[in-house]
Amino acid sequence: MPAQPLKGIRILDLSRILAGPWCSQQLADLGAEVIKIERPGEGDDTRRWGPPWLEKSHEAAYYLGANRGKQSVTVDMANPEGQALLHKLVQQCDVVLENFKVGGLKKYHLDYESLKAIKPDLIYCSITGFGQDGPYAQRAGYDFMIQGMGGLMSLTGQPDSEVGGGPVKVGVAFADIFTGMYAANAIMAALFQRHQTGEGTYIDLALLDVQVGVLANQALNYLTSGNVPQRLGNAHPNIVPYQAFATADGHLILAVGNDGQFRRFCEVAGCLELADDARFKTNALRVQHRGELIPLLLEPLRQKTTDQWLDALEQVGVPCGPINTLDRVFEDPQVKHRGLKISLPHPQDGAVNLVSNPIRFNGEALNASTAPPLLGQHTEDVLNRCLNLSESELAELKEKGVI
Most CB within 10 Å of its CB: which of 70, 94, 100, 262? Predict the structure, then answer.
């Protein structure tokens, strides 16, 4: 088994869709016990967000991507008996994670104040679109709209002046995934703080906050200069040449990070005069004269295939790479060597292919050892183990529709 740095930590996961489940999957991979609470007969919406599906269990690939290593327990939180069960479970947990609308859990007595009263050192993490306060707090927030509102789409896509110009969203749920990772970091920090002080924590995370927070150099480009960054397609606002170029048979990503790399690129490309040109001698000058330099590079780069460029430029230490489709990604020798495709046993489908957690401890990838659970797969086991409920008590709760 790989290292389990969070072994002994128990998470009550009331979240669904992606940001919350991405957080709790990260914690499960790090060794925490994650109890995923789902509505009886329904479960996480993403179980039905297909195709594609697993053949026998008919679980959607979307769901499989964010729920490895968890235990699925079905409880009707709208039922007072279900709420009582969850209150008892909270007392056995270290962390509660939820992504309901602001105030949405108060009517079920599952809000922070209600649960803090029964477990004072509880760590409670809320994920919403816009946070717990402010003029947008009551709005629902979804990744696509957050990418737009938070500025990312204003930076992504071709300029309006070019064919196909216009804002484009990132091809995966960027804001959701980053929010999930920030949530996992915050929870681990809160666990460390509790270890030192004995105190619990309320964590408030908003998709919009995260999206603005990860604008990185583009945000600082604006805040430093006052100039609003524009879409540059595959080009970089602060480094030139740093973009995709057409080759004889496809495309090449050229990522020249310093002046020495630019000179070596020019030597290989047969255009050394550009490295000595007063307009292009430094990166700052190349950024200033981007419109003059890039057209001069188009024809030389079309003279060789992508693989020929990769071989030639790698030999002289100029960063470059191909634009792979996902079939080529998972056949890439480095991806295969690092074991980024994994397979875990599945109770109905035999096995399920997943993407490995990229974190390694002492050479071992940190992955939970169990596949994403079937709906309610662990209900009886968890309630018996954590709450000492007998078979007859479980049967009664099931007959009532509580579990």
Answer: 70
CB 373 within 8 A of CB 70: yes
Q: Which of 44, 76, 94, 176 is catalytic?
A: 176
Q: Please give the full DSSP string across 240-276, using - where no structure is assigned.
A: SSEEEEE-SSSEEEEE--SHHHHHHHHHHHT-HHHHH
pLDDT in tens, 8-58: 999 999 999 999 999 999 999 999 999 999 999 999 999 999 999 999 999
Residues 179 and 102: beta-carbon distance below 8 Å: no
The Cα-based distances of 219 to 154, 207, 228, 231 in angstroms read: 12, 16, 9, 13
92 and 164 assigned to the same domain: yes
pLDDT of residue 163: 87
Residues 319 and 344 in one domain: no
Overall domain count for the chain? 2
Residue-wise pLDDT tens digits, 169-194:
999 999 999 999 999 999 999 999 99
CATH code for position 24: 3.40.50.10540
Amino acid at 91: Q
Q: What is the pLDDT of residues 136-162, one digit of tens each?
A: 999 999 999 999 999 999 999 999 988
Residue 176 annotated to the active site: yes
